[in-house]
Write a structure and sequence with these properties.
Layout lengths: L8 H6 L7 E6 L2 E6 L1 E10 L5 E9 L6 E8 L6 E10 L4 E7 L5 E7 L15 H8 L9 E7 L5 E11 L4 E9 L5 E10 L2 E16 L11 E4 L2
Length: 231
């Protein structure tokens, strides 16, 4: 199963294939043939009061296999969202860029290029619909998820419920996450509760959105990010 950059419950405390005609664009200084239809996913994390806590967005080009992840948080005192981190997989899986911000708030990245021609770093991000399905599919999901059966939402939808529990010794807290899947296996929504000192309370809720979007030619550009090559 792929390594997920989207944080697990504990880490959060610290912080359909599209086929289309091709178009030319430049990615990270290399000209590639890119699809105009991109697989897009968005996970929005909400605080108990309904305000947005964080947003995760991913893009996947089914032709070039370029991938991108953005992690955003609200700018303090406003509702505007700011990119805090994320990553890219480029050059057909041969180049991985981890994105963050420096002490002055500027976007910066650490870039790794595979030296072995047979090595691919495509498994560092989860961006395609099938990969999201595999995250919760029996046989490919990580250990700890329990099948809770089918449930019906208030608007009449029938969803499959999975749940898992994680314990943090550092925070002396137990976290319980439930996620709800549609008939295709894609995640639709979820909720995270925390139990501390005998009290169970809602920590976050979240919703997913999946769709295809157009490639404007800049999705996988990294020219605005200060990059440091990791040898």
């Amino acid at each position: 199963m792929k390594k997920v950059l989207i944080p697990t419950i504990i880490a959060m405390m610290a912080i359909g294939s599209a086929s289309a005609f091709a178009a030319e664009h430049t990615t990270g200084g290399n000209t590639q043939t890119a699809s105009t239809a991109i697989e897009y996913a968005k996970r929005t994390l909400f605080n108990p009061d309904g305000s947005t806590a964080a947003v995760y967005e991913t893009w996947a080009d089914p032709v070039t296999h370029n991938e991108r992840l953005d992690y955003l948080e609200p700018v303090k005192g406003t509702e505007a969202m700011q990119r805090i981190g994320g990553g890219y997989v480029l050059d057909n899986g041969k180049r991985y860029i981890k994105v963050g911000r420096d002490t002055e708030g500027n976007l910066m990245g650490s870039a790794i290029t595979a030296k072995d021609s047979d090595k691919s770093m495509s498994d560092l991000l989860v961006t395609e619909k099938q990969e999201y399905i595999n995250e919760y599919k029996e046989g490919t999901r990580r250990e700890g998820w329990t099948d809770e059966g089918m449930v019906q939402t208030s608007d009449g939808k029938k969803l499959k419920k999975l749940s898992r529990t994680d314990h943090s010794k550092a925070f002396k807290t137990t976290y319980t996450e439930s996620i709800f899947l549609d008939e295709s296996g894609l995640p639709v929504q979820g909720e995270i509760y925390q139990e501390k000192n005998g009290t169970n309370s809602l920590l976050y809720t979240y919703v997913y959105e999946f769709k295809n979007v157009e490639n404007d030619g800049s999705l996988f550009e990294t020219k605005e990010i200060s990059l440091q090559e990791v040898q």
